[in-house]
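Onboarding guide, step 5: your first structure request.
Type a short instruction followed by the sequence, for example:

Predict the 3D structure of this protein.
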Amino acid sequence: MSSATPFQFPEMGIKEFMVSFIFASIFFSILFIPSILTRPISQIPPTNLPHPPQPNHFSVSFAYLISASKGDVNRLKRTLQALYHPANHYLLHLDSNASPSEHLLLAKFVANDPTFSRIGNVWIVKKSNLVTYRGPTMLANTLHAIAMLLRTCKWDWFINLSASDYPLVTQDDLMHAFSALPRHLNFVQHSSHLGWKMNKRAKPIMIDPALYSLNKSEIIWASSERTVPTAFKLYTGSAWVVLSRSFAEYCIMGWDNLPRTLLLYYTNFISSPEGYFQTVICNSHHFRNTTVNHDLHYITWDTPPKQHPRSLGLKDYRRLILSSAPFARKFKRDDPVLDRIDRELLKRRKGQFSYGGWCNGSCSHSSRGDSSGALRPGAGSRRLKALLTKMLSQRNFKRRQCR
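The system replies with structure tokens like these:
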């Protein structure tokens, strides 16, 4: 009786099967991988932030980054209260150099506020960054915040502020003035005339130890200098910006390599937040015509070369109003001018939110809030609308773009 022989694939059958399998795998990868890489970032579930708040019926929404340094928790709390509105989103960053007690104080303030808990639109950067004054870590922190906010919620414009900034209009004023604007506009104060910054910032090479160290220290200067770039044109301006969602997405997920190339270049550039967004947007053919040459801030500077903003006080109050700007900086902690701004411009009582239709004008921390989209703009909205109309006029808008 002959023993049965096991079934074997013919030799050519195995080769044909393997070739077909390899080609099928390659074809599947070509189809599937781009679909992953091109998914909108807003569809990717967030990892470090809670679920986004429920959609509201307001016509426009802002995403704020409010940054604070060691010793600034109380200023941060006051600025947040003055800026708060349920239609917006707020990401708070407290420098990792701040003490654990300060981080705990801020966390308790947000967690224990009934309005923040109910609306769910105030977050704290859990793993805070070490930020060096004039170093690229400040820029990295801003880009980190933009990425987190893009993944977490829907908004129209991103605004970066510090704890020493303060609003000059209510959020109802701001939302009402912006509601009629094209959503692609970017408010980035910029200039290609570097002047003294050419030799003091563009040519020197520096290293920020906060990029690799747990302890804050002074920046390190290289002995040699570099030439002015020829692959792109340098621009400079204000570190305080109002960015459209589309441009923010471009900076994080840019479909060409310009944002990443410039990020690498500005890693060794002193005061990189005053040049990165300006240089990216003005060297991008797609976005350069979306720029409004203004940072929407009222700032007074020291004597030339204007490297440090002067602290504002009561003597500046009239000029603050005449500027028609929605924000100003910088203010000393609990300066009397802030009390006057609260009382006369924001209609805000101590420890409460600024006046708004969402809380029926009585904006305490126990307010239930109204998601119907009702706004109660006032004189601040009229001043801001006049400023925006002037900036977007034919005489000013195109003539001041990326020259």
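Each response can be followed by summary notes, for example: The chain is about 35% helix and 10% strand.
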